[in-house]
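Quick question, first post here. What does this chain look like in 3D?
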Amino acid sequence: MYFLDNKESIIKVIKLFIFLLFLYIFINYIGGLFLPFIIGYILCIILYPLFKILNNRYKIPKPISSILCISALVFLVIFLGVGIVGQIVKEAKEFAKDLPYYIESIKLTFDEINNKAQDLIKILPDGLERTFINFLENSSSIIGELLGNGLKNTSIKVIRKTPNALMITIISIISCYLMLIDKENMQKFIIRQLPKKYADKFSIVKTGIGDAVFGYIRAQAIIMCLIATICFIGLLILKAPYALFIAVIIGIVDALPVFGSGFILWPWALYNVITKNYGLAIGLIIMYVVILLTRQFVEPKILGKQIGIHPLATLMSIYVGLQVFGVFGFIIGPIIMVIIKALQNENILPNWR
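> Answer (accepted):
Ran it through. Tokens below.
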């Protein structure tokens, strides 16, 4: 009886399960094979409005319009790479070079805290006192090992994957060129392969999911850039080292639910209080308040009517994404959540009660 009364909802839940299973299989086992073409399609979607302007308004032939669009993108990437990205890489290298000094400084700070804390924890039970002391003694070495090995392993992986990345880039650009020229015919071809009942919904679902996913990514990218800009200006005023590199890191971390920019700024400010650098500590706290107020004011306006996801659901999607898909799960997890929400809005999947 229950099945008959809720048959439609159960069928939709089964469809959701099949959809998630298909995504898992595609991303883990098939997606890598088609990665250049997926990237090419994403670039095609980004460049298509400019392509239409060149082709329709100015009557420039499709092949030339496609070449002009890709050339503009390549020029922009090179400009950013030589300018902003080049500076970030330069500061990242300087930070990595100075990292042993900072690790040693942090270790000395923890040792100083440990010495001062000896008298304060005598009232604790022996076992808890020993645990607390061990934590203080080992924290600096743990942080140093994580940072040192993390940077070393990351550098090795980047070097090993550079040739493959170059090939993927070339194929992505070529596929983007071909997709721009024949995008409309490709869509018609895909629709012709679908059953009639799905073909009728294809355009609506494609538009809904596309608007949701790209709207979400665009909104998050705008907010990240805004936060990173505020951090960069603030760090320049405070005359902090590696201003651009740290600003970018804070911008990325601030996009994480729960964590936010305070995940970096508050420990940094506390460290400066301990080391009696009160000016920088106060400046970092003020910068955190400015970032917090800016996000609270700007985020609803930028997100507008984009699909809303609860921070806890976003955090869960990031964690599950990391566990299932690895490092790219940080991006894939929330996007899958957005897609599910978009399908719910289109009444293809059941809404949460």
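Residues 76 and 181 are 21 Å apart (CA to CA).
The longest helix spans residues 126-193.
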